[in-house]
Amino acid sequence: MKEKRVFLAIGISLALVWGLILVLPTLAASVTPELVEGNPSCSRTYGLVGFKPADTMPGTYTYNVFGMGVLTMTVKDGPFVDWSSNFGIDKVIVKGGPNANVYSYNPASNGDMDLTTPTNPNNNKPYGLSHVEFCYDDKQAVNADYGDLPTAYGITQLGENGARHIPLASGDVWLGTLRDLELNGVPDDSALSDDNDDASNDEDGVVRGPSWSGGSGSISVTVTGPSCLMGWVDWATVSITNTFVDFGYDHKFSEDFLDEGSGNTYTEKVVNNIYLPAAGTYAITFPLPSNFGNATVYARFRLSPAIFLNGVAGALVDGQYEECDQTPAGLSGPVSGGEVEDYLWRFGPTAVSLKKVAAAPQQSSVGFGLVMIGVTASLTTLWIGRRRRK
Fold first, then answer.
1. Is the pTM of this model over 0.85?
2. Quick one: which H or E segment has residue 111?
3. In angstroms, how far is CA 350 from the centroid of its own chain?
4. What would the pLDDT profile of 86-109 be if each residue is shown by its tens digit?
5. What angle do CA 187, 163, 266 make, to 5 degrees?
6. Cα separation values, 9 from 4, 14, 21, Å
């Protein structure tokens, strides 16, 4: 009887174990990994851009991937790795031991769970986690703020690596009060396509001074928080020998060109990575030839969140503002957070319509009447005199 109870207990235990095995889900990623020998990398092995976090200990980590967006990674005991992102990831390399597991996604994915390292053949357990690298195409279309300079500049659309700002979940900044998002830039000769794509006017962060004279240009810039500003104004036609030719745009932004007339050197990078410490409106000036006059110019301004490498802003720039201690945004390419705004500005005399006025003075009707009275009186006197002589 006791033996039957023992066998019954063993049977029940085995049934429970197998039941749990069947019921509990197996920890596995959504795709089967490829075992790759050695130390593969996103750029060297697959021709993609790579982001390799330094974190390997259990915990959840969030990263702002430069120019793309936000990526979150959770490392769990096992080791297992969960991840999610607001931009597409093509491959994830999970390195452990002498080799790596490579998880490939087609189409690109925005998240997965329970990725792990290769199995150690000595104990049939995963190797310890060495590192994780996320591979992506940095030219993928994501919702971002794009510019709208004309086609001739070649720095507006995604296919030409145009300027674009991918919004952040927190700590973001922008120019003015509005910012919109699109999947691609739309070049426009008036630099207005970003305003005309919806009911909002989001190109509202930079206002030029009414006239640029006396050897300087002036703008006022409104920002929503601590930020770094870059600015270019295409105000000069510059020759292939990098010398000044005339005022007005030439569809390129030139630096360090010579004005042979004055002997001065100028640049169209008019704002160079300056630090704006808080929300507000800032007045900024920059040098121009003293005879700058009637001209049509294009301008591009790029604002980025201020994230200092050394915890300080930096040195003064031209005695106005401190310089940001971070890599500045360029004329093209992606940036995490911030905004790009493009403008077409025309400088010239105020148009006044004048009516043509005859040079001859108009006669008064009263004056004409007095003249006629005088003539009549003179003729009457002359007639009376002649009558008396008769």
1. no
2. strand 99-115
3. 33
4. 889 999 999 999 999 999 999 999
5. 95
6. 9, 9, 19
